[in-house]
Design a protein that fits this description.
By secondary structure, this protein is an alpha+beta fold. The chain has helices at about 1-25, 105-140, 150-180, 225-230, 270-275, 285-290, and strands at about 50, 55-75, 80-85, 95, 100-105, 185, 190-195, 205, 210-225, 240-245, 250-255, 275-280, 295-310, 315-320, 320-330, 335, 340-345, 350, 360. It has 6 helices and 19 strands.
Length: about 375
């Protein structure tokens, strides 16, 4: 029995020892769960709103142009050839009839013209002599004189032949003069030679502009516009004019001329040569400090309305030709068709569909 008790005590001590060893062993740390990523709640951006207001709506059109002479004359030779002599420089003042340049061969043509002038004078003298002979015969010869009728007829034929000779000489003279004129570049008016693109010895083509004479005492604005732009304008429309890109004095003027077929003038020959829109100034350009070639900004008021409903252009939506807005009430948004009037740069006239004070949501 004693041996049984010792055996039980041994097993008990061994069990305690195992428990103590287990308690003293290092513990494996527990696995940590990953921290979830924070996802913020998306914020729906608020769309801007606009209030239907009442006021002025202005439809205006702006374009640029340059200071240009009112009267300018493009010049060209009427025949092709080599430039013989240039008598003026760009910037020189010229008078009406001044020869600016001529072509080779002009010397021979001028000699031929001088020779023809002599022949013309000779033909005039022959005619005068024939007319004098006829008058003297009629005055001094009685009608009953022998061969009176035959002699009278001969005298009359002499006058007729002299007339034909003079006419023939005149035609030859005019023919040579025309050839001379085709070889000359002549100023058609007093002014300044503002452009000259020829040199002595260079070839030129007939009917191709090589110079411009202008009257610099009268200046205006010249602009090249598209057909759609010109269709919005009328001659006589008032405008404001100022130097482009430079703050300064603003002056007034008017649309002086629109090219054919937009203008009232039926002279297609002029408009074909100058297809520009011309704007006159109410004050002299020189007085305002404007110089030839200055770039100008021109503003034209096409239409103006006061005390009308309006919205900014970005508040109006368009779909398949239909114009509408989204009106915001206390609880809902509602689509409303609108009819617009004139359209300005930052305001659009609302003719029908809305009332003053209504709130419109932007697209």
């Amino acid at each position: 029995m004693f041996r049984l008790m010792n055996k039980q005590r041994f097993f008990g001590i061994a069990m305690i020892f195992c428990l103590l060893a287990s308690a003293c062993a290092p513990q494996k740390p527990a696995e940590q769960q990953p921290t979830p990523t924070f996802i913020p709640t998306s914020v729906v951006p608020l769309k801007p709103t606009y209030t239907v207001a009442r006021g002025e709506v202005v439809d205006q059109f702006q374009f640029t142009g340059r200071i240009t002479p009112v009267n300018e004359y493009p010049l060209y030779f009427q025949s092709s050839g080599r430039v013989r002599k240039v008598y003026f420089n760009q910037g020189d003042e010229v008078k009406q009839g001044d020869i600016i340049a001529d072509l080779d061969g002009i010397d021979a043509l001028e000699r031929q013209l001088a020779f023809n002038q002599l022949n013309l004078r000779r033909a005039e003298i022959y005619l005068e002599m024939a007319e004098i002979g006829l008058r003297m015969f009629k005055k001094s010869t009685p009608k009953w004189t022998l061969n009176y009728t035959e002699t009278l007829t001969m005298k009359e034929r002499e006058v007729e032949l002299a007339q034909l000779g003079l006419k023939e000489t005149q035609l030859r003279n005019e023919e040579v003069q025309d050839i001379v004129d085709q070889s000359l570049l002549i100023s058609p008016a007093d002014g300044v030679l503002i452009s000259l693109s020829i040199r002595e010895g260079r070839e030129v083509q007939g009917f191709q502009d090589v110079a411009v004479v202008a009257d610099l005492s009268l200046l205006e604005v010249s602009a090249s516009l598209t057909s759609s732009d010109m269709s919005r304008l009328e001659e006589g429309m008032p405008v404001t004019v100022e130097l482009f890109g430079t703050p300064g004095e603003v002056t007034t003027g008017a649309i002086r001329r629109l090219p054919y077929p937009f203008g009232s003038s039926g002279n297609t020959k002029v408009t074909e040569q100058d297809p520009t829109t011309r704007v006159s100034l109410d004050r002299p350009a020189q007085e305002l400090g404007y110089k030839l070639g200055d770039m100008m900004k021109v503003t034209v008021v096409i239409e103006r309305k006061d005390n009308v409903l309006w919205l900014p252009p970005q508040a109006i939506r368009t779909f398949e030709g239909r114009k509408f807005v989204v009106v915001q009430t206390d609880t809902v948004q509602q689509r409303v068709d609108v009819k617009v009037g004139i359209i300005g740069g930052d305001r659009v006239e609302i003719v029908d569909g809305l009332q003053e004070g209504q709130i419109v949501v932007s697209p």
